[in-house]
Amino acid sequence: MSEITNRFATGAPQNLEERFASRAAHMKPSEIRSLFAVASRPEIVSLAGGMPNLSAFPMSMMADVVQKLVLTNGAEALQYGSGQGHPKLREQICEVMALEGIRANPDDVLVTTGSQQALDLISRIFIDPGDVVLAEAPSYVGALGTFHQYEASVIHVETDNDGLVPQGLRDAIKSVRAAGRKIKFLYMIPNYQNPSGVLLPAERRTEILNICREAGIFVVEDNPYGLLGFDKPSPNAMRAEDSENVIYLGTFSKTIAPGLRVGWALVPPSLKEKLVIASESSILCPSNFAQLTISSYLAEQPWRDQIASFCDLYKTRRDAMLESLDEYFPTTAKWTKPGGGFYVWVSLPPEIDTTALMPKAIVAKVAYVPGTAFYADGFGSWSLRLSYCYPTPERIRVGVKALGEVIKTEMLRRGSNQLS
Ligand code: PMP
Question: Ligand 1 centre from 90 Cα, in Å?
């Protein structure tokens, strides 16, 4: 008997790769995950992560909320709950969304474990291997990772300083369909986009909605940052204009606390059943404890004032970052000027590879996220994302100065004469 036949005959174990399902091959650590281990070292100024700044959060207020919840309603809070989410919180979520012009029925809200779970559920019910998902160029790394795991092919759509370009969307739809491929949805972040910080103006929202409706393509509107505008409220949510064709994702991660892991999807009624079933199969029900904590906080505490004070804090940090970029970055670099949210997107001269530059930045004690993380196709090597949400303004200045020096040194090394 040959060795191979013998192996099967005796039931000898296959190697681990052979034992995984084929979809596991698409599960790779994100660039950001491997970066975090380094970026979280205390001596490094991390301009990499998108962690909300909980230094401004009223911990004693939250302690009161949690204590009261457990003492007065512990039996419910610590129990399993409804797969769709707690009815009271779903009502309150509708009040939160009303701030962005959305009139919704709590029955169409599915509470999720952060909006990341909603991205996973949507991918699960829509994407077959090879299907196309359209997304802004660049787009949120966590969403791209999820689409990738479900074996979607992400096609990026052109953006400019006002976000997604409607004509670029028309062109993308035309060329994808001419190639005989199926588009499952357009994924976009209209408010203070991650990673670009850009805000999509109202007229473009309407135009994009019209294009997608006519083409029969769902819009997945991911909106973690909409209430974090610094100077003026953001335009109405896209979902406010179209309740049939928009799947809206919200989260309390950036306005209350990400550790509670409470987000939601507001879905057209025709999709709800499938999403609830998909969610039940992964988590049975979202955490009642986390939902009721948020619910009590919303009912008992001045949460709108708290969001306003978060906005003040982020605005000061945004200003520190923009001022330091002006001061310390080469003039050949370009960056966005966000009116809210957490991020600035920087484009360097094309010869600079920001992934290759990262070890030098770490030596200089500063971290950022290289631009290619935000593209599904390897594009963006000369860009990078900086976040200003977490470090103090002083640390932001130190970090941007250090990074500016690393970039200028690299440009000199490459013989660029356009430094200042
Ligand atoms: N979407 C976007 C655009 C984000 O920036 C984030 C968090 N960085 C998420 C979704 C996920 O947020 P969460 O799961 O904490 O609600």
Answer: 19
Nearest atom (ligand 1) to Cα of 115: 16
Q: Does ligand 1 come within 6 angstroms of the Cβ of 253?
A: yes
CA of 72 to the centre of ligand 1 (A): 32
Spacing of C-alpha 66 from chain mean position: 28
Task: Kindly report, residue by residue over 137-182, the tens digit of the pLDDT.
Answer: 999 999 999 999 999 999 999 999 999 999 999 999 999 999 999 9
Ligand 1 centroid – CA 74 distance (Å)? 29
Residue 153 has what pLDDT? 97
Q: Measure the CA dihedral 358/362/368/374, to 10°.
A: 30
User: From ligand 1's centre to the CA of 3, what distance in Å?
Assistant: 51
- How many angstroms is it from 341 CA to the middle of ligand 1? 12
DSSP alpha helix (H) spans, 182-330: 202-215, 269-283, 288-300, 303-328
For the entire predicted model, the pTM comes to: 0.94
Under 8 Å CB-to-CB from 214, ≥6 apart: which residues?
Answer: none
Domain layout of the chain by residue ranges: 20-57+305-413, 73-300
Q: What tens digit of pLDDT does each residue of 293-325 get?
A: 999 999 999 999 999 999 999 999 999 999 999
Asked if residue 149 lies in contact with residue 20, where contact means CB atoms within 8 angstroms, the answer is no
Architecture category of domain 73-300 in CATH: 3-Layer(aba) Sandwich (3.40)
For a mutational test of ligand 1's pocket, the pick from 115, 141, 189, 223, i.e. the residue with the most ligand atoms closer than 8 A to its C-beta, is: 115
- Mean pLDDT computed over every residue of the chain: 94
Architecture per CATH, 20-57+305-413: Alpha-Beta Complex (3.90)
